[in-house]
């Protein structure tokens, strides 16, 4: 069959070519990570590099788990993520509702102070937050990893903006019908804002799971260490065994890749409306 | 009846504060107070956080930090990092966002691939890059030998380490940049393109004469956001050099210096002064953003 090559199909060809090359550039490190995690030590350090491992066995995973408490790190990460999502979502919903629908003296002043605080990098707060955590005797505990992030100005700002788009007449008619603020918030506002809240939960879960710098300051051993920092510590024990490191990296990375594939639209939407935290 | 009305009035006065208090309490303790505190600590000479004592209020911390080689070289490294990563990643992102914006089959798959590094731990990804950068058996050096370049000690030689960090940082920031630019492109009115195509304009011409000018506020915004996040480069550095600031302690950055002053030197005053300087850098960039936004608004570009 002869394919007629006109200008359009040539440009289509180049679009696909560059998109495929670009995708490869972005996912190649992950492919390499997974392939290396199945290689033997000899396979991992040969030159020229060997692409496919001779056999796919999980021995490196078992080895990584026996060398460092990744099971414990994983559980800690899950607990911190759940606590973080639960507390942040609660404070965000309540705060956003108050700023959007309730009237109280100082509302606009407080809100503009909060917006200007949003500019402050977390790196600046670390010194004091670290001493606070030490002083209230929570150093090297799970709550230490959650407390500084219980309230998020950014998420509250996003949700307040959404609540603002819900017509006030709905609010007043519900109030006249005798619904309290509490009932109105949970029965009407929250269901309407479900997609926004879901996005906030996802972004929060991602940043909690991947959080590295804060755990580096306030955890000292496996009791409260989470996966990224646990992985960093593991590099000193397994530095010359890249196949173990890649098995451990896969454990850290894979849950978020799966989450992303399942909820891509929400995450991309959330990021494009305001960016990731931090 | 009157009594209950009064009670209800009183309740409606305090009700907003009941909703706000969980949020505000944590903001005050973990954001507002630390901001104020970091400024005061930065002026306290010989500050001890356990006893809360200090020798005098002065500029000694700033003097020390600004003459410390580790900090000044850190500032230089950070500035170089920002100057390379921000423009390069924006240019590459513009190219790919433009392709992703075209109606192609499998765009969901392409988007997933392009955005993956955004959701993955920078620590894990940094370790992968370290492996790919390996001098003896890394795949990047293998590619280089294919085109006749000798193996490079990316993460083991000090002269290559900043470049290694910049390449990794650019790759890492691409997904975010592409997402922002892509959503900006999707907001451009389709009729501009239709008219241009009817006039017979070539794709390259459409891109540079329509997409780029109309996108300039978004391009500008993403540059600002990326500049701020690149100023804070730290988590990218850590896995690449196994926790050290470069193979020979040659690659300090501003945020790495904060950690060094706090946890190794145990000098909170120095750390606070460095944090305030970091903030001032970011503050200037943000003011620039506001100023330019205002000017662009006046010109009618929105």
Question: Could you name the ranges of chain A where pLDDT drops below 50 across 5 or more consecutive residues?
Answer: none
For the termini of chain A, the CA-CA separation is 55 Å
Structural class of chain B: mainly alpha
Q: In angstroms, what is the radius of gyration of chain B?
A: 25 Å
Annotated CATH architecture of the largest domain in chain A: Orthogonal Bundle
CATH architecture of the largest domain in chain B: Orthogonal Bundle
Order of helices and strands of chain B: HHHHHHHHHHHH
CATH homologous superfamily (4th level) name of the largest domain in chain B: MetI-like
Plain-language structure description:
The complex is a heterodimer of chains A (278) and B (302). Chain A has 278 residues and is mainly α. Chain A has two domains: 7-59, no CATH class; 69-274, MetI-like (MetI-like fold, Orthogonal Bundle), CATH 1.10.3720. Chain A has helices spanning 7-37, 41-44, 59-67, 70-101, 107-117, 122-135, 142-146, 153-165, 168-176, 181-192, 194-210, 213-218, 227-238, 242-274. Chain A is globular. Chain B has 302 residues and is mainly alpha-helical. Chain B has two domains: 17-58, no CATH class; 69-298, MetI-like (MetI-like fold, Orthogonal Bundle), CATH 1.10.3720. Chain B is built from twelve helices and no strands. Chain B has helices at residues 2-42, 60-67, 69-100, 107-119, 122-133, 139-146, 158-186, 190-198, 203-231, 237-240, 254-264, 268-298. The termini of chain B are far apart. At the A-B interface, helix 1, helix 4, helix 5, helix 6 and helix 11 of A face helix 1, helix 3, helix 4, helix 5 and helix 7 of B.
